[in-house]
Amino acid sequence: MSINFELLDLRAFLAVYEFGSFHKAAELLNLSQPALSRRVQALEQRLRVPLLERSTRHVAPTAAGRRLEPIARRLLDELDSSILSISDLGEHQSGQLAIASIFSTAIHFLPQVIRRFNQRYPLIRIRVHDLSPQEGLESVIHGQVEFGINMTGSTETDLSFTPLLDDPYVLACRRDHPLADKKVLKWRVLAGHALIRIGRPNSGNRAFLEAALARANVRLEWQYEVNNLTTSLGLVETGLGASVVPRLSTPNRRGDLVVTRPIRSPEVVRTIGIVERRRGRLSAPAKIFRDMLIEQWTPRLKAVG
């Protein structure tokens, strides 16, 4: 028996399956809700079995829907990958890829990967949402981006986290700062120096750092408090104080006025990785971009280790 259906019918079913909502799935696929419903109904009619149980408050897959889901994902994944693997078609593939990234990785790592990706797929537009850790997680959860680059700390069960890189916190100070001549610092030697704290209360980086220091019974006295890293480094450059920052946010370059020094006892490290929806399905371009990110970071993983 031959069963005919359109690929968009499968995409409609998977979107509703993932979000448990016709409204959110319609927004993701840029369809009206009636059009999306017709797509799902057409697939159910062709398969002669209900795939989703609908109520006024909730949408859940039936037993048949749960069996179809991995088959549909595999079918669409293989199709997308096959099309992009044909160089002529891949070069002419158009569309848009949206990802979220915390600020430090958006500045220092993404440009190189974007350049490589653009050389292969020049017609695919890339939108980078440079967000705070919490904002980045929410954009992934709500399907506003395909995946995110974020730090550890999320307790969301609907998200998966793939570690990529350990990023230790360091002291950023001017080259003429009294602590700049030391190769390695301990937290206790920061006492008596003007320090700049970064982040709003309960922000991702600030909360992570303060929790780690509290566990190690380390207490710091902050003279200044700012909301973002750029402002903090501006104060450091003018000699107003030093700041504790993730190492990725201040890459050392010859001639820089600001230098970084590692801090031990204990070493506080955040882990950077890729955040995805557990039941989500990356588009073929997103998977390729994700693989390029992992490839780009492999040498950095070795360097940090």
User: Total number of β-strand segments?
Assistant: 12
Number of domains: 3
Structural class, from helix and strand content? Answer: alpha/beta
Query: What is the CATH third-level topology name of the largest domain?
Result: D-Maltodextrin-Binding Protein, domain 2
Q: Low-confidence parts, pLDDT < 50 over ≥5 residues?
A: 301-305
Could you give a short account of the major beta sheet?
Answer: 10 strands, mixed
> Approximately how much beta-strand content do the residues carry?
15-25%
CATH superfamily of the largest domain: Periplasmic binding protein-like II
Rounded to the nearest angstrom, the distance between the terminal CA atoms is 56 Å
Overall shape: it is: elongated
| Rg for CA atoms | 24 Å
The CATH top-level class label of the largest domain? Alpha Beta
CATH architecture of the largest domain: 3-Layer(aba) Sandwich
Number of helices: 11
Provide a compact summary of the structure.
The protein is α/β, with parallel strands linked by helices and 305 residues long.
